[in-house]
Each structure stands twice: as structure tokens, then as C-alpha cells.
Write a structure and sequence with these properties.
Elements: E1 3-12, H1 16-27, E2 32-35, E3 51-53, H2 67-71, E4 82-89, E5 94-106, H3 109-122, E6 126-128, E7 131-138, E8 142-149, E9 152-163, H4 170-174, E10 196-205, E11 215-221, E12 225-231, E13 236-244, H5 252-261, E14 270-271, E15 273-274, E16 277-278, E17 280-286, E18 295-296, E19 299-301, H6 317-337, H7 345-358, H8 361-366, H9 369-378, H10 380-389, H11 392-399, H12 411-427, H13 438-463, H14 472-490
Parallel strand pairs: 1-2, 1-9, 2-6, 4-11, 9-19
Antiparallel strand pairs: 3-5, 4-5, 7-8, 8-9, 10-13, 10-14, 10-17, 11-12, 12-13, 15-16, 18-19
The structure holds flavin-adenine dinucleotide (FAD).
Length: about 500
Amino acid sequence: MPVSESYEIVVVGGGVAGCFAAATAADQGASVVQLERKSAAEAGHIACGDAMKAPTDPKKYPGPIDMSALAADEDVLIDGNIDQIEWWDEDIDVKKVLPYEGHSNVVDRYEFGQRLLEQTAACGVDQHFDTVVNGVLQGAQVEGVRAVRDGEPVEYSADLVIDAGGSLSSVMSDVDFASLDADPETSFEKPHFQQFGSAYREVLETQEPVPYENALVGKPLERMGYIWYFPRTATEINVGLGFQMNKEPVELVDRLKKDIQGRPEFDGAGFDTVNGKANKLGAALALRRPLDSMVAPGYITVGCNAGTTHPISGKGIRGAAVTGYSAGKHGAEAIRDDDDGFISEADLWAHNHYVYVEHGLGTRVAIKDPYNIAASHVGMENVRALVALLPEDAIADVVSSEGNSLGVRNAMSLASGVVQNALALVSDGRFDRLDTTKRDVGRTLLDFVRAQRYATKYERVYNDYPATRDDFFEWRDARDALDDGFNDALGIPAGQRKY
Ligand SMILES: Cc1cc2nc3c(=O)[nH]c(=O)nc-3n(C[C@H](O)[C@H](O)[C@H](O)COP(=O)(O)OP(=O)(O)OC[C@H]3O[C@@H](n4cnc5c(N)ncnc54)[C@H](O)[C@@H]3O)c2cc1C
């Protein structure tokens, strides 16, 4: 017989989303257990480029986790030294430099993860490490999880399960959503793996300071994706790469090795270590818009699994924090206000509404997704040409995590910037090094403008995300109609569409 334990809220996962969810729910007075499959010493060691922005801004990182304390912790290495993004397309001699304001940082992700877990425990959360969740308990609602803790079976019953298990969470796969009590059907949107990316990174220690210690550097990968060098200090560089899983797979470890082998700054570089082992990890990450609805009866999913990662840059720490906070807060409130012993989707709806409207991060991520769709449609060679042609501020709008300012861009200034860059690229023969044609690049530019236009339209629809579940299905129909219009405009046939 498995051991039985009972809590108001079970949080699966000890990453950013799990810590923000568990800490917030406990801070609201709920009894909370956080389950993490890794050991206490390994927990918080997460595959990540480790770049994050403005950690001390409470709007960006809401809730009881004290990010200022983390920012002041020198082991976490948040030194705010990054002030620009650089795009290097070396084969065609293109370098774009984008200003990056607001205290951007590359952190020691392991130390950051460990400190988050400590703060979560201090909020009154029970933490069970070495605990692998391998099933769910469910009736009319999700009622808890099955797990193996230190090799022994345990059943955790709960009013609410917050699934912070990361991309394509196994907990989500175990839920039978169709059999939960939701009328006419669950609003929960199950994501597809092709909407995710696969990524890998190492932290290398160089012998000499790199010349780009103040920059997040990105370079094109032949599949839909990029290679990065993110310096957390002048001699500790997070190097990695990732591609979207709707394309042919890339052998990530070999491809990264090939890239850095030719670079003098990595000559003789060794690995940073965590718990005595080389610091290298890979994982999946969402490259899609946030889920239409992140709730089901007795269940909320958050973080990377909920699709709150930027669909172009892949940055997801802030999305994990915001959705975790929201799930903890609104989940605890739903349990406190419950009078029928059933935590319905309507009871949890405030979570969806907070993410999309009150906080707005969900909307800001969703309006970047048209650029991802257009990029996947035109292919990487055309994306490289597009980046070469666009003025830097237009590129900055696409990769930023803020709202959509392209709608108000002066079309004439965009056009004149593109023409100047095109003349330079063609006149010195660099254009011929790309595997594309001028006609395809012309079409790509048009698709970019279409993505801009639709980003503005999506923004209006997502700003209007329904405050109650009753209005959700009508809202989704209106959004789906916009999807049809966008896909038709790009010429993407049914069956090849992202959603
Ligand atoms: C290579 C790479 C580079 C990235 N670079 C950046 C970057 O530079 N900046 C940025 O902001 N974002 C970046 N991201 C995205 C960011 O890392 C994620 O969005 C973020 O970590 C998501 O946090 P999370 O808490 O949702 O999930 P995770 O960080 O994946 O945490 C999930 C946790 O749940 C645990 N878990 C999973 N399943 C179970 C189970 N069945 N039982 C018990 N425990 C379980 C895992 O062990 C893990 O600790 C990157 C992602 C990748 C893969």
C-alpha cells in the first residue's frame, strides 16, 4: 500500500514556476507540498541560457519571492552588465547591435535555482526531493498525484495540482482531460510537441576575457533556431543552441562543438562545474503562444509547459515566475472560497485572466507568435536575409518582451532602412552567399509586414480575453477566425498550420 499524504495544493516541479507557485500559495495560507524529482543538491540545476531581465522589478517578478535579495547575492552573479544584443551572421558579414536596457543579466542558474528553493521553503512549503510524480489521481476533477519518493510509492491527495513540471510535462500527459467534469468540454488546451524547441547548453570558462562581455550574442543555425554566447562574466560563457521541433532535428552537442572549435576565445576553455560535474544540460522549451486556457478541474499548468516562453528568443524565466505566482495566488483563493468541494475551471479562471489581461504577459508573448509562424513558413535562409535587411529597431521590437510598437512604426522609415541595407547587401555580392532568391526575399518582407499587422490584431483580441469561463468558447472562435485569416494571408495550407 502506498503511503498517503494530503495537502490543499500539490505543486509538481522545483523550477522557477514551481517555486513562485508554491511560495505564493503558502504565503496565502494554503498547505502546500512541492515535489521535485531531483535530489536537494541537484534541484535548481536547469538547462537554460541563464539570461534574465530586470529581476528587481516587482511587476516583472510578483509575489513573496524576494528577487532583490537574489540580485544582491554575488553567488548568483546578477551583475547587470549586459546592455546590448548582437546578431552575428558571419557568412554574409552582417552584424546587428541592438540596445538592451533595463538591467539584463546572465545568472549562475544553479545558485539562482537553489536560492529560489530556499526562499520557497521559508514561506512554509513542505519540499519533497527525490520524488518522481508518475501518475495522477482523478475523478470529476484532478484530485492529486501518484509518486515514488526515495524509491517508495506515495499518493498525494489535494484540492488542486499545480503542474510546474516544465515543457511537455509528464503530469499533463497523465491527465485524462476528456473525463473531467467540464461543460461542454474542458477549456484546457493541450500543446503539441512541434510547438516546442529542443535546446542544449554548456557553461565554459575561457582563459581570457571575451570581447563581448556586455552582450547577448546570437547567430543563425541552419535549421529554424540560433546559437548563443551569453557571458555571465567576461570569462564564464553560457554557450548553447536550439531549434524548433517542426524542422529536421539537429545533433545539438556536435553542432555546438563544431561552432566553438573555430573560435579563438574558446581555445583551451574548460567546463564550469556543478556538484563536481561539467555544467552541460539540454531540454525542451515552448516556442508558441500561451495555452488558450491553462486550467482544468483541480489542475493548473504554469511556466514552460503553459507556453509562456518568448516564441522567438526562447526566454521563459519571467513567464514561469508570473504564471507560477498567479497559479499560487488564484489557486489558494479558489480553495478558500470553495463551498461545494469541487474546484471547477470557473473557480480557477482568474488565473487565465490575470496572465492575459491583468498582468498582460500572456498577451505580450502571444503577439510575438505571428513572427515565429512567418519565420517557420519562409525558412531560415530567408530569415537571415530579412534580419540583414531590417533596421535594428525593427528587429528589437520582435525580440523584445514588451508590447507591440511596430503598429505605430513609420512605414516610410522602415522601407528606407530596408532599401539602404538591400543595396549594400547586393552591391558587394554578399546576397549571393544566401541560398535564396530576390523574389523569395521580397515575399518574406511582405510576410513580415503581414505578421506586424496581425500582431496588432491579435493584441486587440488577447486584451479582450474573457473575465469568465462562460465567454471563453466564443472568444476562442473569434481568435480562431483571426488564425485562419493570418494563415490564409501567408498561404499556409490547412494541415500545415501551427494550431
Ligand atoms: C537550453 C535552454 C536555454 C534557455 N535559455 C533561457 C534564457 O536565457 N532566459 C530565459 O529567460 N529562459 C530561457 N530558457 C527557458 C527557461 O529555461 C524556461 O522557460 C524555464 O526554465 C521554465 O521554468 P519551469 O519552472 O516552467 O520549468 P523547468 O525549469 O523545466 O522546471 C521543471 C522542474 O520540474 C521537475 N519535474 C519535471 N517532471 C517532474 C516529475 N514528473 N516529478 C517531479 N519533478 C518533475 C524538473 O526536474 C524541474 O526541476 C531556456 C530553455 C532552455 C531549454
